[in-house]
Amino acid sequence: MTPAIAQYIRPEVVAYIAFGLTLILVFGGALLAVLPKNIIHNVFGLATSLVGVAGLFIFLGSEFLAMMEILIYVGAICIAIVFAIMLSQPMHLQLPRRYRPKMIFSFVVAVSIFFSFLGIVTATHWEPALVRGGNWGVARLGRLLFTRYELLFELISLVLLVAIMGAIITAAALTGEDDRSGDKEA
Q: What predicted TM-score, i.e. pTM, was given to this entire model?
C-alpha cells in the first residue's frame, strides 16, 4: 500500500506553494508585458499575467470570474491585440506629425471623462460585500448575465467587434495609401 502524500506534506504547504507559483506567474507575466521591446512578447506577457490573475480568482473562491478572465481577457482581448498588431503599419515607416489641436481635444475629452467617473465614484454610496450578500454561484451569475445584464454583455461584444473592424479599416487605409503612392510613380 502506497502512503498518501498528505502524510509527508501538509495541504497548507501545497496551497502556499501553489499561491507562490501563481504570484510568480502574475508578476513574471507583468514584467514580460512591460520590459521586452518586441510587442508580441509584450502581448504574451500580458496573457501570462492574466492567466495568473485567473489563478488568484480561483484562490478567492470565484471560479466563474477566473473562467471569464481567461475567456474574455486572454481569449478575446489578447487575440484582438495580436490581430491589431498584424494589421498595423510597420515600425520602420516614417509616421506623419501629430495634429496638435486633435491631441489637445483628445486630452480635454480624456480628462473630462476621468473627472466625471471620479465624481460618480465619490458620490456613490458603496456597500460592503458582506452587506450585499446573496447567492453568487455560477448558475445565478450565468442567469443574471443572460437576463438582467444581457445588454451590458452585448455592449462588450459590440466594443470588441468595433475594435476589430477599426483595425481592419485602419489596415485597409494604410495599404490603400501605399498602393496609391505606387501608382503615382508609374
A: 0.53
